[in-house]
């Protein structure tokens, strides 16, 4: 019974983190429903919780796990949206400035972007999520989105947040992609399972 209580306590903790984290990321996928998103994130937070070697089983926390050697690595390498892998959609070099947290994509070539079927435009949404994994408070500092069509000719893209984190918790540099189709001069969001993607590029 003791082990059952311990597991239940930690499961409840991970569930609370999961709910707050999905809410924080909502601007990146507003109006879209991911298949198994909740369960996938539960797997991530369970692994992060397991990195906590300070507390005894039953009281381990995600926040302590993130502070361990592999914590940031798990957040950055996790495949948040495997059906729409942002790094495959945008196969370019990413650089996040340590000064202003601006994201720069170098050697950009629109012909190399992996457009989904029917898409005429891609929107890039970048923000720095200041997330407290203890108290589950957060603020999201967004850059103005970039919407590009298939004829875009630029070779460098820069997205800079309008505001910077104040140190609530861990700063996660998040990049989202979303595809649109132009019809009669208006853009309509595509909601196929492979048309929305999210990734964490860097943790600070």
Task: Describe the structure in your own words.
- The chain is of the alpha+beta class.
- The chain is built from 5 helices and 9 strands.
- It has helices at 2-25, 37-50, 62-66, 71-77, 86-89, and strands at residues 93-96, 103-106, 121-131, 138-142, 146-149, 157-159, 170-183, 186-189, 196-203.
- Strands 3, 4, 5, 7, 8 and 9 form a 6-stranded antiparallel sheet that branches. It has a 3-stranded antiparallel sheet with strand order 1-2-6, with no helix packed on it.
- Strand 7 and strand 8 (186-189) form a beta hairpin.
- Helix 1 (2-25) crosses helix 2 (37-50).
- It is globular, with a radius of gyration of 18 Å.
Give me some keywords for this one.
204 residues; alpha+beta; six-stranded antiparallel sheet; three-stranded antiparallel sheet; 9 strands; globular
Structural class: alpha+beta
Shape field: globular
Largest sheet: 6 strands, antiparallel
Distance between the termini: 39 Å
List how many beta strands DSSP finds: 9
Percent range for β-strand residues: 25-35%
List the helices and strands and how they pair.
Blueprint: H1 2-25, H2 37-50, H3 62-66, H4 71-77, H5 86-89, E1 93-96, E2 103-106, E3 121-131, E4 138-142, E5 146-149, E6 157-159, E7 170-183, E8 186-189, E9 196-203
Antiparallel strand pairs: 1-2, 2-6, 3-4, 3-5, 3-7, 7-8, 7-9
Helix pairs in contact: 1-2
Summarize this entry quickly:
By secondary structure, this protein is α+β, with helices and mostly antiparallel strands. It contains five helices and nine strands; from the N terminus they run H-H-H-H-H-E-E-E-E-E-E-E-E-E.
């Amino acid at each position: 019974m003791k082990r059952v209580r311990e597991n239940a306590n930690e499961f409840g903790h991970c569930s609370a983190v999961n709910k707050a984290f999905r809410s924080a990321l909502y601007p990146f996928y507003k109006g879209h429903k991911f298949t198994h998103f909740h369960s996938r994130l539960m797997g991530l937070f369970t692994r992060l919780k397991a990195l906590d070697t300070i507390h005894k089983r039953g009281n381990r926390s995600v926040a302590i796990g993130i502070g361990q050697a592999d914590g940031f690595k798990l957040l950055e390498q996790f495949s948040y949206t495997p059906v729409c892998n942002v790094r495959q959609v945008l196969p370019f070099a990413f650089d996040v400035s340590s000064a202003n947290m601006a994201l720069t994509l170098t050697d950009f070539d629109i012909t190399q972007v992996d457009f989904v079927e029917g898409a005429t435009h891609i929107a890039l949404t970048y923000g720095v999520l200041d997330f407290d994994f203890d108290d589950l408070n957060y603020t999201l500092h967004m850059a103005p989105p970039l919407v590009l069509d298939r004829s875009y000719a630029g070779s460098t893209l820069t997205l800079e947040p309008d505001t910077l984190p104040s140190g609530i918790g861990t700063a996660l540099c998040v990049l989202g992609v979303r595809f649109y189709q132009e019809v009669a001069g208006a853009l309509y969001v595509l909601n196929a399972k492979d048309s929305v993607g999210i990734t964490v590029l860097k943790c600070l």
